[in-house]
Amino acid sequence: MLRRRRLLLVLSIVLLGIVLSVNFFMDGKHQADHGQYKVRLERRLASVINGFDKDYEQISGSAQNDKLLTFKSLNIDHEFHFYLFSQEGELTYWSDIDMVPDFNNFSTSKEYQLLDNNRGIYFTKLRKLTRNNKDYWVLQVHPFFDKVEIDNEYLESGYNPDIFGNDRFLLSGSPKENYQEIHFDGEYLFSIFFRVGYDPPGKSINHTLLIFFFSLLGLVLLIGGGFVYTLWSKGQKNSCNHLYLYYSFLCKGNYAFLSFSQ
Predict the structure, then answer these.
(1) Burial of 213: CB neighbours in 10 Å, binned 0-12, 13-18, 19+
(2) Which entry of 24, 36, 64, 219 is 20 to 30 Å from 234 by CA?
């Protein structure tokens, strides 16, 4: 009986090691491919920029060139929030009241840039619009990260899940060492550092592997617990100490598995 339990325990340990190894190498390869993360991010941003352009066509065509811009003329369907400033920096129109950018928080010399304020971090596009011989700045924004904590299960805060898979990243508005530079049509947008554990949007956990892992872990604990008790009752304390070291390793493997699977 003791020999049979020992055989089952060894087989369970081998299977558990195989599961951990497969998961580790699959996720290790995924995490190492930062270049692929960059390509995916640039594709998503290209879609955002195309949306900016479509909205701008609506904005620029909302009134005749010889007419003054008004709230009524700018009350159009749009995908992204936008704001109008005079050349002097006076806010003349805003499509959203939850976040109103300060004119001093962005540079008028950059078309694309990151806007960072107390509400969050936003990807923006800036350009000019002329009406009735008067120039305006049009600032379009897309949220990257929401800093406001929302106590509502139906409203999201934190990173934008349409752009990022999780919050394991750092952003910079200028080139930085070890950061990936993000471009659109050869033009620099911003830089990003993918931290350990970052996943792109759409990555799903291998639930089958996860269920199998915990089922196997339960089997090992069940068999191993009885095996340890039998050894202890027979006075084989050295063998019990070896199994204790094994269980310590098992717990560390379990933690590593969960870390890579999230």
Answers:
(1) buried
(2) 219
Which structural domain, as residue segments, surrounds residue 218? 2-29+204-261
- The tally of domains found in the chain comes to 2
How are beta strands 187-194 and 169-172 bridged, if at all?
Answer: antiparallel
The packing angle between helices 207-233 and 2-32, to 10°, is 150
Element (H, E) at 49: helix 34-60
Whether residue 210 sits in one domain with residue 96: no
User: 199 lies in a domain?
Assistant: no
pTM of the model: 0.68
Query: Does one domain contain both 165 and 53?
Result: yes
**CB burial of residue 254 (10 Å; 0-12, 13-18, 19+):** middle
CA angle 69/135/99 to nearest 5° reads 65
pLDDT digits (tens, 9 = 90+) for 207-232: 455 565 556 556 555 555 554 455 44
In this predicted model, what pLDDT tens digit does every residue of 9-18 receive, in sequence order?
556 565 655 6
CB atoms within 10 A of CB 199: 18
